[in-house]
Amino acid sequence: MSIELFRNDNHAVLMFTDLVEEDGQAVQSNQFLIVDHGVGAIIDPGGNLAYNELFVTISRFFPPQSLSYLIASHADPDIIAALDRWMTSTRAKLVISRIWERFAPHFTKAGKTEGRVIGVPDAGGCLQLGENELWLLPAHFMHSEGNFHFWDPVSRILFTGDLGVSLMSGAEAARPVTDLSGHIARMEGFHRRYMVSNKILRLWVRMARQLPIRMIVPQHGAPIEGKHAIHDFFEWIENLMCGVDLFDDRAYQLPTGVVDGQQNRVKPLLRAVG
Ligand SMILES: [Fe+2]
Ligand SMILES: [Fe+2]
Asked: Which residues surround ligand 2, an ion (CB under 5 A)?
């Protein structure tokens, strides 16, 4: 399903929510196509599960061979595991944090990324896209060490990668959330474990509040739309304890269970280790 998040004569933002088969094994994920004055980029193209469907689907809107950029918020498998195929089928350049610049080529055959990786420094920057700019905003440790969010000043959409994620089906993800009550329960567990620390969340909120955001669009689950929902999201996230805030000595003990590969679970250990 393709969802038009924004369109005017020269600028379009499309979201795809259900290209990965929902068999319960892989987390639902969103991919994005942004086109300005005939120049196109994909944000967080995804892995091998999304590649074929995404390539065919975007062909209806934009010739994939003409894509200028593959823009990656970070280097996780659901973001760029299909990099080899994108590098083969397009002439696009990969835009990714400088700290992943020399790790990303491990996703491809030798030489495929030569001269085609734009390593973004920690401070971010504005990337020319058509006649407008896409802002590459620092979002390090949310959750990845080298992480960027993307601000599109034309549509006033903030693409937040793994921040604002909610766990749901592709069909549900297609419907923006305008009231956060009830939705926080679908975000909480993920953010407590995948975000690194409350300090980082507070610093990010301080930066993000300066932008006139119409919609926050995560890479999993539904967009958060409108003044009230975005205000409530900021309030929630800046007060959330997560990651290292919640880990103490109890989390770092020698194992007391045995991994049962047959049943994919951990059982109590019956004998002492060593
Ligand atoms: Fe991730
Ligand atoms: Fe993700």
From this structure: 78, 162, 219
